[in-house]
Write a structure and sequence with these properties.
Blueprint (H helix, E strand, L loop, with lengths): L1 H27 L17 E8 L4 E8 L10 E7 L15 H8 L1 E6 L23 H19 L2 E11 L1 H12 L7 E4 L20 E6 L5 H13 L4 E6 L6 H4 L2 H13 L3
Parallel strand pairs: 3-4, 3-5, 5-6, 6-7, 7-8
Antiparallel strand pairs: 1-2, 2-4
């Protein structure tokens, strides 16, 4: 009888240990794939870099553009740039005119991945494909902040002239990270921004003192939530510019249009110390 009890205890202990280990393994299992590390831009002016993400031990890529005028020890303005849903980490570097404008206006540009290509920078709790972003979202947000920290450590970045902008999903991330770290950003710009799930228009109060530029096309369904957010900016009497472009789409109006890309650089340059 005692032998049977001991066997049962051992079996129970084995099952408990197995379940605990399985839960731990599932928790540690990466949500990333090789697809997340793909690159799109071959321009030699773009540096493809990476670092080790401390929480998981994974190597996470990011891209960097350094203008030719940069001199170590002399502070330079920085643009943190957030890509859209499923785009590669270096995707924004390929926007028409972006690198030339960054050279002309003397901006360093960094484009984080956001941990995965669908992480939403912490701005959404659930993906469009119903994936839970419980872990992926915070990691996505942290990746952006890690890349910002690394860039500031490795280059002479003017702490008073750090700018944040994003397109589509990156726009949601710009709203969210702008509100999460309002002390960091000199100004914000959003192109066809998706509304962040984890934020409400009332949260604009948090960033009411930060200048904001919003570019939005009328042929994009996101024009409707954008108008709601801009209406709140107006109510708060924020320092904002809303450029609603008649007939413009969701993507090409900025990715393939140097003049609209230039509006972002002009806006940031006007607010630079």
């Amino acid at each position: 009888m005692d032998s049977g009890d001991n066997q049962m205890k051992k079996l129970t202990l084995f099952i408990s240990t197995f379940l605990i280990f399985s839960a731990w393994a599932l928790e540690k299992q990466s949500v990333r794939t090789e697809w997340d590390d793909e690159r799109s831009i071959q321009d030699p002016r773009v540096q493809h870099l990476s670092y080790i993400f401390e929480e998981t031990g994974e190597s996470i890529p990011y891209a960097l553009f350094v203008p030719s005028s940069y001199v170590k020890g002399k502070d330079i303005s920085l643009m943190v740039s957030l890509h859209g849903l499923t785009r590669t980490y270096d995707w924004l570097m390929g926007y028409e005119g972006l690198l030339d404008l960054a050279e002309q206006y003397n901006f360093m540009v960094v484009t984080p991945l956001g941990y995965t290509r669908k992480g939403w920078y912490g701005a959404w709790s659930k993906g469009l494909d119903e994936r839970s972003l419980e872990r992926e979202g915070p990691f996505s947000e942290k990746d952006v902040m890690n890349v910002l920290r690394l860039t500031r450590e490795n280059y002479s970045i003017d702490a008073n002239n750090i700018f944040l902008w994003g397109h589509s999903m990156g726009g949601a991330g710009t709203y969210h990270l702008g509100m999460e770290h309002p002390e960091l950003w000199k100004a914000l710009a959003l192109a066809a921004p998706a509304p962040p799930q984890v934020r409400d228009v009332k949260d604009l109060k948090i960033i009411e003192d930060i200048p904001i530029l919003v570019l939005q096309g009328t042929k994009d369904r996101l024009v409707y939530p954008t108008r709601e957010w801009v209406a709140e900016m107006k109510r708060l009497e924020m320092n904002y510019i809303y450029d609603e472009i008649v007939g413009a789409d969701h993507s090409f109006f900025v990715s393939k249009n140097k003049e609209n890309m230039k509006k972002i650089f002009n806006f940031f340059a006007e607010h630079r110390d």
